[in-house]
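Subject: design request, 517 residues
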């Protein structure tokens, strides 16, 4: 078994790390703990551990001082730094001492276990881990450098060409590189969601030599290599994000313009983060240009917007009149006004929720006979939307349903005109979209309104009208194929199938002399 020592000045952390993962399963046993660096140096000499987990900031002697002393007598022990913050200069110094990893608190179980698995394999190869540690050191230094730059911090020591070659393979790989920041989100709110996705992205991006992946809280960052844009533009990165996120995680990403040098990363990061702050107005599953401005897609009138109360009153008038097209037009106008009142996610959801609540209260007062409990759910659904476009689509659908319910009496005249039209033109190739255009309705809304008034979908209603007309013609002695064509069915077999579906018997049963039942 490989020996582990845990060093941290907080007793709860020392105790928690002993049970956070199954050490024995990975071939380790915990042989001791220490509360500060001085105690760690002393116990190291006694226990000779193969792996040390050590905190940076501790009393008496800090983590770096302890590591320095340990390395004077032991250059093969694996060391994993635990720290409450990410600091490039600390990481750089730790690399000098041959540290194998750097985990930022609060410690992620998957991240810790991943490191322990690597350490176990390395120890099992009997000292062949020297190269592996070097590779991990380079990856650690590169990630800490990128994190510092994206956070707007410039490392004290400059990055010469030699250091850039060590971290990135070549200076040429950085010319015209691009920064990509991705925000991941899920309704499941898994604590390990981002860690798992980052691990997968690292395999996909770095494995294909397209760039480098790093943590950039609260985002995941990527530095895209020079030339990657020549191999399919952003498509390889979009595909990698889709694969890493799977079906349960969603993302919105922003990419910078090509950079001339690493020194431009802080400014590029600032622009990308500014764009991601308006993520709600963007669409999910897309990679956006950091230099462009987010747009709601709605025109913004120059006049002073109405109050939310006045908007609710006017929108209710549209709903109460029962014209779905007017409702949708009014929603689009108010959408632009509400964006002007406040375009943050919180402001937009709050204002729309207030408007809809006022509208539903007015509807309940005017139409007490209607049950509007289910319609209140539309307010709740607003807060579940990840993006503005999704929220507006859901809102429009629910308002059209409410319009069909409330405007029933007023819609009866229109529905009479529609059904009369069908009675006159049933033999023609009628489509719901055609009628919607003729009667100046949204096709989806007309379909809902039609079913509300007739109890049938448009296609079912049309079929039944045609079948009843077919029965009259059959009883007059016309042949089945002639009847099929005259009532609007070009295919006689299709006519047979429809007839039997609605009447339970074949068309010939209704011919002159047949009972029809």
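Subject: RE: design request

Done. Sequence follows.
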């Amino acid at each position: 078994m490989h020996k582990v020592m845990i060093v941290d000045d907080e007793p709860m952390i020392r105790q928690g790390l002993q049970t956070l993962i199954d050490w024995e399963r990975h071939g380790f046993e915990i042989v001791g703990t220490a509360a500060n660096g001085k105690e760690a140096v002393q116990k190291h000499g006694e226990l000779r551990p193969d792996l040390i987990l050590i905190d940076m900031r501790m009393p008496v002697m800090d983590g770096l001082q302890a590591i320095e002393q340990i390395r004077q007598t032991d250059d093969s022990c694996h060391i994993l730094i635990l720290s409450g913050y990410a600091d490039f200069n600390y990481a750089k110094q730790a690399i000098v001492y041959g540290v194998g990893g750097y985990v930022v608190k609060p410690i992620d179980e998957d991240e810790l276990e991943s490191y322990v698995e690597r350490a176990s394999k390395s120890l099992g190869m009997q000292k062949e881990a020297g190269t592996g540690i070097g590779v991990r050191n380079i990856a650690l230094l590169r990630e800490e450098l990128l994190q510092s730059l994206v956070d707007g911090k410039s490392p004290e020591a400059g990055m010469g060409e030699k250091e850039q070659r060590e971290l990135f393979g070549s200076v040429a790989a950085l010319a015209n590189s691009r920064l990509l920041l991705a925000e991941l989100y899920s309704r499941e709110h898994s604590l390990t969601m981002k860690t798992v996705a980052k691990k997968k992205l690292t395999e996909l991006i770095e494995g294909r030599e397209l760039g480098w992946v790093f943590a950039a809280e609260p985002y995941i960052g990527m530095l895209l290599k020079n030339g990657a844009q020549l191999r399919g533009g952003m498509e390889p990165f979009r595909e990698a994000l889709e694969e890493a996120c799977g079906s349960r995680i969603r993302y919105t990403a922003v990419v910078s313009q090509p950079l001339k040098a690493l020194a431009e990363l802080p400014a590029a990061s600032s622009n990308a983060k500014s764009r991601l702050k308006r993520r709600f107005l963007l669409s999910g599953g897309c990679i956006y240009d950091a230099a462009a401005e987010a747009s709601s897609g709605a025109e913004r009138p120059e006049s002073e917007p109405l109050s939310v109360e006045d908007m609710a009153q006017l929108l209710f008038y549209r709903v109460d009149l029962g014209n779905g097209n007017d409702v949708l037009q009014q929603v689009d106008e108010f959408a632009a006004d509400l964006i002007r009142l406040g375009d943050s996610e919180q402001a937009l959801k709050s204002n729309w929720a207030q408007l809809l609540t006022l509208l539903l209260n007015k509807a309940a007062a005017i139409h007490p006979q209607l049950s509007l409990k289910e319609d209140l759910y539309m307010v709740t659904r607003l807060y579940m939307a990840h993006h503005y476009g999704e929220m507006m689509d859901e809102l429009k659908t629910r308002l059209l349903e409410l319009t069909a319910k409330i405007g029933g009496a007023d819609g009866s005249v229109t529905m009479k005109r529609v059904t009369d039209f069908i009675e006159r033109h049933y033999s023609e190739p009628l489509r719901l979209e055609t009628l919607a255009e003729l009667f100046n309705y949204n096709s989806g809304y007309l379909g809902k309104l039609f079913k509300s008034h007739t109890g049938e979908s448009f296609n079912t209603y049309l079929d039944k009208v045609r079948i009843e007309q077919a029965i009259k013609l059959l009883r007059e002695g016309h042949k089945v194929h002639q009847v099929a064509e005259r009532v609007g069915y070009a295919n006689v077999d299709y006519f047979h199938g429809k007839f039997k579906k609605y009447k339970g018997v074949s068309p010939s049963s209704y011919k002159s002399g047949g009972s029809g039942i």
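Residues 129-150 form the longest helix (22 residues).
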